[in-house]
Design brief:
The protein has 321 residues and is an all-alpha fold. It has 16 helices and 2 strands. The longest helix has 30 residues. Bound molecules: geranylgeranyl diphosphate (GRG). Geranylgeranyl diphosphate binds next to helix 3, helix 5, helix 6, helix 8 and helix 9.
Length: 321
């Protein structure tokens, strides 16, 4: 799916699908586990059209959602690195750094269009609409991040909305799409959505913690990169609640390392990191609860996948990279 006709575009589009730099593949892992977790029992009569097909055909359609989602994710990373003028990604030179901005933008567009072609082939307009909404949210979240007013920058609500758009929407809408493709009810589709949303929020909250606490090697990018780019995340927002004077430090400008150091000093004195971890844990447990609310199913594969999805919520909050 990522192979292009023109050699230059082909090597650019394939860049982050090569062995060793494929990333965690967190989204496709969740999506395929969700697919199995929602499989209806074969003994039950199939409902209208949707699941009335061979299991292998259904699995291929579910796999398509996993592939589409990863391609959209990688496209957004390519564009993000151009916008941020990044020089590394996944521990190697970012594509913009190695091949230039123009080809990076085009490679992102190419991946996005290939994802659209596959999406259209599934012939499910509701799923098309969900995935298109997720792409719109990626763009909206990115724009919110780059055009934040001083007021918005200190707002937890603004931060959480942006976080949903940038990180949680793609995974939640993909999980919902899987439920619909599997022929599940609207209620089950909503639980799949809730799982993805809360897992995505927990994931990003921990990412924001790791930006402060992790080492640059384990993150694959420079530590403290958010704060140095003027991006205020949950740990600092909580620190601001404890020390209102921190706001004026941030408002003075994080382009000045003196202000960054001062802000970090406040963060160190505060419970910002701890409270962010607690919020992540709350979302992780909401994600688990969504899985536990799914209709009972005694199929062994279904149960194993549900246990894995719950296990993932623990891993997300305990990860160190
Ligand atoms: C072209 C679809 C498209 C969008 C353009 C630039 C942009 C609009 C959106 C950027 C969205 C973005 C980069 C969100 C951050 C999401 C995020 C948490 C990335 C890190 O994900 P990991 O940790 O990365 O899963 P790996 O490398 O493991 O895949």
């Amino acid at each position: 799916m990522v192979v292009a006709e023109v050699p230059k575009l082909a090597s650019a589009a394939e860049y982050f699908f090569k062995m060793g730099v494929e990333g965690k593949r967190f989204r496709p892992t969740v999506i395929l586990l969700m697919a199995t977790a929602l499989n209806v029992q074969i003994s039950k009569p199939a409902s209208e059209g949707v699941v009335d097909m061979f299991p292998t055909e259904l699995r291929m359609r579910q796999q398509s959602i996993a592939e589409i989602t990863e391609m959209i994710h990688v496209a957004s990373l390519l564009h993000d690195d151009v916008l941020d003028d990044a020089d590394t990604r996944r521990g190697i030179g970012s594509l913009n750094f190695v091949m230039g901005n123009k080809i990076s933008v085009l490679a992102g567009d190419f991946l996005l269009s290939r994802a659209c072609i596959t999406l259209a082939s599934l012939k499910n307009t509701e799923v098309v609409s969900l995935i298109a909404t997720a792409v719109e949210h990626l763009v909206t979240g990115e724009t919110m991040q780059m055009s934040t007013s001083a007021e918005q920058r200190s707002s937890m609500d603004y931060y959480l909305q942006k976080t949903y758009y940038k990180t949680a929407s793609l995974i939640s809408n993909s999980c919902k799409s899987i439920a619909l493709l599997t022929g599940q009810t609207a209620e089950v589709a909503m639980l799949a959505y809730e799982y993805g949303k809360n897992l995505g929020l927990a994931f990003q909250l921990i990412d924001d913690v790791l930006d402060f606490t992790g080492t640059s090697t384990s993150l694959g990018k420079g530590s403290l990169s958010d704060i140095r780019h003027g991006i205020v995340t949950a740990p600092m927002l909580y620190a601001m609640e404890e020390f209102p004077e921190l706001r004026s430090v941030i408002d003075k400008g994080l382009d000045n390392p003196v202000n960054v150091d001062l802000a970090l000093e406040y963060l160190g004195k505060s419970h910002g990191i701890q409270r962010t971890r607690e919020l992540a844990a709350k979302h992780a447990s909401l994600a688990s609860a969504a899985i536990e609310s799914l209709p009972e199913n005694d199929d062994e594969d279904v149960q194993r996948s549900r246990r894995a999805l719950i296990e993932l919520t623990h891993r997300v909050i305990n990860r160190t990279k």
